[in-house]
Design goal:
- The chain is an alpha+beta fold and 102 residues long.
- Helix content is 38%, strand content 25%.
- It has three helices and four strands, in the order E-H-H-H-E-E-E.
- It has a four-stranded mixed beta sheet with strand order 1-4-3-2.
- Strand 3 and strand 4 form a beta hairpin.
- Helix 1 runs antiparallel to helix 2.
- The longest helix is centred in the N-terminal third of the chain and has 17 residues.
- The radius of gyration is 14 Å and the shape is globular.
Amino acid sequence: MPNNNYQVRLLTVAEEDLREIITYIALENPTATNTIADKIEKHLSLLAENPHLGRIPRDEEIKNLGYRYLIVQNYIVFYTIEKNTIWIHRILHSSRDYKTFL
């Protein structure tokens, strides 16, 4: 029976990532701001229900650090699972060299 008691927690840097994404989108396309924020929030809720929803990275270094990831439009949400907590480490645009940020 799956454990449905996972809590999703954003590390401070992930909260900053999310704020930067929303701020950037608000400047470029204000009507899209709520859409991307809602999609990220929805995916985080799905993750709370199924922590193994995300993919395992192909990159051995990142994989060995225990990261999994979700893709939400053009953004990659990197997370780890610790007991009943899902820790969101970063939310990065897919065009960025994410290895330098993890």
